[in-house]
UniProtKB/TrEMBL annotation:
PANTHER family: SERINE PALMITOYLTRANSFERASE SMALL SUBUNIT A. Keywords: Endoplasmic reticulum, Lipid metabolism, Membrane, Sphingolipid metabolism, Transmembrane, Transmembrane helix. One of its GO terms (molecular function) is serine C-palmitoyltransferase activity. The keyword Ion transport does not apply. This is Serine palmitoyltransferase small subunit A. InterPro entries: Ser_palmitoyltrfase_ssu-like, SPT_small_subunit.
Amino acid sequence: MALGDCWKQLCWFYYQYLLVTALYMLEPWERTVFNSLLISVAGMAVYTGYVFMPQHIMAILHYFEVVQ
């Protein structure tokens, strides 16, 4: 029963996502292209943050002389 409730909640979140972004009026293939691009851009942003943020944080800490 809990798995069914979890699936219902997930479907409801997806439906809300479709409504908020107005994707409900696109055809399925257009929705797939949009979602693929969105996931790609979000993935690149996460990767870039993972790779470059430690360097920037260390540079800031060195600038403010928190780390020697």
